[in-house]
Specification:
- With 345 residues, this protein is of the alpha/beta class.
- The chain folds into two domains: 2-153, HAD superfamily/HAD-like (Rossmann fold), CATH 3.40.50; 154-345, Ribosomal Protein S5, domain 2 (2-Layer Sandwich), CATH 3.30.230.40.
- The chain has helices spanning 34-43, 64-80, 130-139, 186-199, 216-234, 283-296, 310-329; strands at residues 2-6, 46-53, 87-91, 124-127, 143-145, 155-161, 165-172, 179-182, 202-209, 243-249, 252-259, 265-269, 276-277, 280-281, 299-306.
- The strands form four sheets. A five-stranded parallel β-sheet has the order 3-2-1-4-5, sandwiched between helices.
- Helix 2 links the parallel strand 2 (46-53) and strand 3 (87-91).
- The longest helix has 20 residues, at 310-329.
- The chain is elongated and about 75 Å long.
- The two termini are 32 Å apart.
Length: 345
């Protein structure tokens, strides 16, 4: 059993900045992407568990009925959408109480986590605060962050194991570019960190491959897993920008054009004069992007127009792809549906 722990205020519902309490029904606003995100989690096999701090709940400053009216309306609304919570845990204390249940402490869920059916490695925590991240760290589970009162994060968690590689990835399209990457190929780690930074995608990726043979399987399968995870995180692609383009890098001019078209096409023009950049074979650079485009099912055109430094050439391609993804993955407020005349991608 996998569990998705979810903060409430600022993550699932709008948190009033002046009071930080949803204490009236007219204050209840479900945030963008929440319904779609929770349905996606349930489809992926997650049980939903709400974990929330509600300062002074049950006291004169925050009577319980003022909390329960909007809370019950939230639960009913989501239930009507087919979304149910396995458990709801509420800490009613304030920091000065020094209780054992207020996040980031894990007292609220300690008994639940003793259930032998829970696959802790498959659990996640989704929230908007540093306390949510520390809560996840204390549980030993991945954290998916978002901006307070922002869009519910579009993310995917994936593990792919073959006889040649074992690769795990957790990515959040609506992140801020943070990354933790280890592939065993230092230069590839550096390029993927730049890709995440420029795409504003949070990326955690670990790859264990047969590097004693050569780098091919690790590079190829990393690209496949990354593209597949992005595809899953995009869902039905409703509201996305879809397209993106280009990048200069010092003396290098690399052109990168991307279309999240649902069709796998990769075109590359360019050459490298060195066999390796760092510990990455240059013959695998284009192959990485071809594998990525195939698994993401996108159209990707890359051209190195000019350049001398081989490091800069490769870096320009990865940064350019990151910038294209930043444009293409972004929710366009003017796009009301799926950005295609066909009605699907």
């Amino acid at each position: 059993m996998k569990i998705a722990f979810l903060d409430r205020d600022g993550t699932l519902v709008w948190e009033p900045p002046e009071t930080r309490q949803v204490d009236r029904l007219d204050k209840l606003r479900i945030l963008p992407g929440v319904r779609e995100g929770l349905r996606s989690l349930r489809k992926a096999g997650y049980e939903l568990v709400m974990v929330s701090n509600q300062d002074g709940l049950g006291t004169r400053s925050f009577p319980r009925r003022l909390f329960e009216i909007p809370q019950n309306a939230l639960i009913k609304t989501l239930k009507n959408d087919g979304i149910r919570f396995r458990e709801i845990f509420i800490c009613p204390h304030v920091s000065a109480d020094r209780c054992g249940c207020r996040k980031p402490k894990i007292g609220l869920v300690r008994s639940l986590m003793k259930d032998a059916r829970i696959n802790r490695a498959g659990c996640i925590m989704i929230g908007d605060r540093a306390t949510d991240e520390r809560f996840a760290r204390r549980l030993g589970i991945p954290f998916v962050g978002m901006r307070t009162n922002g869009r519910f994060p579009r993310f995917a968690s994936l593990r792919r194991t073959t006889e040649e590689t074992d690769i795990s990835v957790l990515l959040n399209i609506d992140g801020n570019g943070r990354s933790e990457i280890f592939t065993g190929i230092g230069f590839l780690d550096h390029m993927l960190a730049l890709l995440a930074k420029n795409a504003l995608v949070d990326l955690s990726l670990t790859a264990k491959g047969d590097l004693t043979v050569d780098e091919h399987h690790t590079v190829e399968d990393t690209a496949i897993v990354l593209g597949t995870a992005l595809r899953r995180a995009l869902g039905d692609m409703r509201g996305i920008g879809r397209y993106g383009f280009l990048l200069p890098m010092d003396e290098v001019l690399a052109e990168v054009a991307l279309d999240l078209s649902g069709r796998s096409t990769f075109v590359f023009e360019g050459s490298f004069r060195r066999e390796y950049v760092g510990d990455l074979p240059t013959e695998l650079v284009a192959h990485f992007f071809a594998s990525f485009a195939q698994s993401l099912r996108c159209t990707l055109h890359m051209t190195i127009r000019r350049g001398v430094n081989e490091h800069h050439k490769v870096e320009a391609l990865f940064k350019g792809l990151g910038r294209c993804l930043r444009q293409a993955l972004r929710i366009d407020p003017l796009e009301n549906g799926i950005p295609s005349a066909k009605g699907s991608l």
